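Quick log. Single chain, no ligands specified.
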Amino acid sequence: MPTPQPFLPHGGSYKNLIAYQKAECVYDVTFYFAHHYLEKGDRTIDQMVQAARSGKQNIAEGAAAGNTSKETEIKLTNVAKASLQELLVDYEDFLRVRGLKQWQPDDARLAQTKRACAAHNDSEYYRKAMPERSAETIANIAITLIHQTDWLLNKLIEKLEIQFVENGGVKEQMTKARKEYRGY
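-> predicted structure:
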């Protein structure tokens, strides 16, 4: 009898995903922001922190589930996207109702923020920078990070879809491994 071949993929750690790293930055920025710029007792604090947490945690959970279910991985990655979209709206609402500016594409501050956020995936960078920034600046940094994370999650979902089409799901891989083992 031939030696059975493993059929479950052995993917890398979710911590190596840039989308996860960015989502962690979003979480840390949001935690600081919510606890420093929203009034104590405001339900939005918990909602924003939970949306940021959900964005990060669902990437991790999806990656872990991906070894046995690409469908679950895709769904949880999309849940992460949805949670971050909810958080994005909270930041936009914060700026709008307080008469603060959401930086527009022609604003030099936005261009600078995009470059800085693209260059830094380490949440410590943001944790150190937050105490020196205004509520408006932090909200715009968070918005930028959310957009960048969303773009990365779109690319990740596309990659997962391609992997599924090319390799099938775990049931197909199990059947294939069993047939190869039996020699037919």
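The first helix runs from residue 18 to 37.
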